[in-house]
Design a protein that fits this description.
- This protein is 28% helix and 21% strand.
- The chain is globular, with a radius of gyration of 27 Å.
- Strands 2, 4, 8, 17, 19, 20, 22 and 23 form an 8-stranded mixed β-sheet that branches. Strands 9, 10, 11, 12, 13, 14, 15 and 16 form an 8-stranded mixed β-sheet that branches. Strands 1-3-21-18 form a 4-stranded antiparallel β-sheet, covered by helices on one side.
- The chain contains 20 helices and 29 strands.
- Strand 19 and strand 20 form a beta hairpin.
Length: 731
């Protein structure tokens, strides 16, 4: 399909002259890493700087260590031997080490040091030069394993799962329906919270003051109001953070009654800073996941913010300054939270300016996430918020985590991207890590380059599982190095390049400017295609450039980046921009791929069995007789042509008083097979992060939102795909 890089217009195709096969670095019995968890931007890397400069391939690795995969990760318990590691670089045992002297020694594939095999780990070799016990040693067959950590990997006993909530109960929060929806979402997640009988919960609410709740003693809920915002002290030491299994009745009573308790409130102030300081004091002894729900710009106490939005700066050279934090308070607080193993998820709901850029520091430096619902309206947004909240609380979750990535001789890590705090030069601290969190690392060559035939990259995530075991999840990739650029081009992993370049671009906006960031995207991806075409033209005199499948997606990806809300030049408010950056910076490869290259599906002739064929992202594929679904990974748009059969339209959509179309819900009385099929398609591609579905009629004023997603066409200030390809080839 189109996602695989069939770009049409003759850009996807065979290309690439045959110049010897790329040698493999992986023995045939080894299972490689799932690319959704760990992937390099190319599966053959340049051996020296001059090859890298000729190839112009962005070098890096994208890591999403807990991403869901088809197969189970093998668990290794080394027992009395202890965790087997290289004595020099501390890399973990993996399938790519070399055994010598009949198995008595092994050479590390990262630093090339020779290690003596521990007596309890020794095995003789067979006549193929493989260890005789290979079948019993998953760590020598699987590139991804999870090692049970010994006590030596623990500073304290593994922590329980802790879920703590800070909820805004000011007038706007109550009136929008946010408070009631959040309470029902948390209630719905309680049965499936990870951690079993050890799981702990607690909550604080705030408006112009901060309110504590003691959950001990069932439905006799005790409330304490903090008398002084400057002086945070805990009203009682024990009942504020409680074991869910023991105090569930009291906690559920609180969730059920909270919206009513503040139903008549007139409060419009928001003491978010003091509420977070209070949560810090409650959680400090254990750590955990802190979910914050804010409807109003913090207006009193520590962390007070003012409206600094300035629409006159949009599209101007210093626009990026609106995306810098207003002050250092939230970043400093995030560092303190991270230090005691607290991670923050921020949910923002204001109808007005919210300063997403500043508040996102809470999530950015603690391994959390920020979700923005501008102008939250429960009837429209409630279901999406509920789904996201339940997912965020119940997904696979690791605690008190650190990550270190080691690279083989000749390479080094030159930059890190994602939501974490960097401790020492290369240790990423992530108090809570979940299945959605992703990190990217930029790689560079040392002066000497690589002198061996292969190079390895190994990631190690040390964390506490939700069932209270300390584990080390290890991913190892081993790839050939080469001086032949064609080998590198043939093994490019375009989605990883897209993820790396996007994260670099987002970081560059606040470090430099939007112009420099866009220039980086354009230069990086254009240089890659140009270098490939230069290599090709030395072999062939074909007039038209045929891109191999590995590269076919890159030109469209470049346009997708430049036309995306994250980077495009026009009409994006600073809050919207900051929220898109906050969402995408920690996002994984597959989510980024669909954001940069949306899918366009015809839905007016579904057979109920197969997914409809994806269309090219161009208006040439849009006409009056079709109903089309555009999905960019965060929202659905359906455009209904004026000549689509009216019987079909009426069975799928209801018409509101304002003549707008809305998708009909499925219920017991549904008789329309077509409606069921449309819902079936939506359900199969909807993620927890999707927000809303808009139906647009042909000729309506909202069509611009639909057409701006058709990135193969020209848009304000950006080329069409055809123009971009001509631009690349004009040298």
């Amino acid at each position: 399909g189109a996602q695989q890089g069939g770009l049409g217009q003759g850009y996807g195709g065979q290309g690439m002259q045959e110049t010897s096969q790329v040698p493999s670095a992986v023995p045939d019995y080894v299972h490689v890493c799932d690319p959704n968890q760990f992937s390099l931007t190319a599966a053959a890397l340049p051996s020296h700087t001059n090859t890298a400069n000729r190839a112009n391939v962005p070098l890096g690795v994208v890591l999403q260590p807990l991403a869901e995969t088809e197969s189970e990760v093998p668990v290794i318990n080394f027992g009395a031997i202890g965790v087997v590691r290289c004595k020099n670089c501390r890399a973990y045992m993996n399938p790519y080490v070399q055994w010598t002297e009949g198995g008595a020694h092994w050479r590390c594939n990262l630093c090339a040091s020779m290690n003596e095999t521990a007596s309890g780990y020794y095995s003789p070799m067979d006549n193929m030069g493989r260890r005789a016990d290979l079948a019993k040693r998953p760590e020598l067959i699987h590139s991804t394993v999870e090692i049970v950590a010994t006590p030596h990997y623990m500073i304290r006993a593994p922590m329980p799962c802790v879920y703590f909530f800070v909820i805004d109960v000011s007038k706007p929060a109550i009136e929008s329906g946010m408070v009631a929806r959040v309470c029902s979402g948390i209630s719905a997640a309680l049965d499936d919270l990870p951690g079993g009988k050890r799981t702990m919960v607690g909550a604080i609410t705030y408006d112009s003051t901060v309110h504590f709740y003691s959950f001990r003693g069932g439905t006799k809920l005790r409330t304490h109001v903090l008398p002084d915002l400057e002086d945070i002290f805990l009203p009682e030491p024990r009942g504020l953070l409680v074991n869910l299994a023991e105090e569930r009745k009291g906690f559920e009573y609180f969730l059920e009654n909270l919206p009513q308790m503040f139903a008549e409130t007139k409060e419009i102030e928001a003491a978010l800073g003091p509420a977070l300081e209070a949560a810090y004091e409650v959680m400090k002894p254990v750590g955990g996941k802190l979910s914050v729900f804010a409807s109003t710009l913090p207006s009193i106490g520590k962390g007070r913010l003012t409206n600094r939005d300035d629409p006159t700066k949009l599209g101007k050279p210093d626009e990026h300054k609106l995306l810098l934090a207003a002050d250092g308070y939230y970043k400093d607080l995030a560092f303190r939270l991270s230090h005691v193993q607290i991670s923050v998820d921020v949910y923002l709901f204001s109808r007005l300016y919210t300063d997403v850029a500043t508040l996102n520091d809470l999530a950015k430096y603690t391994g959390g996430a920020t979700h923005h619902y501008p102008n939250y309206y429960d009837l429209e947004d409630g279901f999406d918020l509920h789904r996201l909240l339940v997912h965020s609380l119940t997904r696979q979750q690791g605690w008190e985590a650190v990550i270190r990535v080691r690279v083989g001789q000749g390479y080094m890590v030159t930059d890190f991207f994602g939501n974490f705090r960097l401790r020492s030069t290369d240790l990423l601290t992530v108090p809570c890590i979940d299945s959605d969190k992703s990190f990217a690392l930029q790689l560079g060559l040392t002066e000497k380059g690589v002198t061996t035939p292969t190079v390895s990259v190994q990631s190690a995530l040390l964390y506490t599982t939700s069932f209270g075991e300390r584990r080390i999840r290890v991913h190892t990739i081993c790839v050939p190095v080469t001086t032949i650029t064609t080998h590198i081009y043939r093994t490019i992993h375009a989605p990883s390049i897209g993820a790396l370049v996007l994260k670099q671009a987002i970081a560059m906006v606040t470090k430099a400017s939007f112009d420099k960031s866009r220039e980086h995207v354009r230069k990086t991806l254009t240089a890659l295609i140009r270098s490939y075409s230069y290599t090709e033209s030395t072999y062939s005199h074909a007039q038209q450039l045929k891109l191999p499948e590995s590269l076919a997606a890159i030109p469209l990806m470049c346009l997708g980046l430049l036309k995306h809300e994250a980077l495009r030049d026009k009409n994006v408010t600073s809050d919207q921009r900051a929220s898109v950056h906050a969402l995408m910076y920690p996002m994984g490869v597959s989510q980024i791929e669909i954001s940069l290259r949306p899918r366009l599906l015809p839905i007016h002739q579904l057979d109920g069995k197969t997914m409809p064929q994806e269309l090219e992202l161009t208006a040439a594929d849009v006409d009056s007789t079709s109903a089309l679904l555009l999905d960019n990974g965060s929202r659905f748009l359906i455009r209904v042509g004026s000549r689509v059969d009216s019987k079909w339209v009426n069975s799928i959509f209801a018409t509101t008083e304002s003549k707008a179309l809305v998708l009909r819900e499925l219920d017991e009385s549904t008789t329309s097979v077509d409606l069921e099929r449309v819902h079936q398609i939506l359900d199969s591609i909807r993620t927890p992060f999707h927000k809303g579905l808009r139906v647009i009629r042909e000729g309506g004023g909202e069509e611009i939102h639909f057409f701006s997603g058709l990135i193969q066409d020209r848009s304000v200030g950006e080329q069409s795909l055809a123009e971009y390809m001509q631009f690349i080839l004009r040298r």
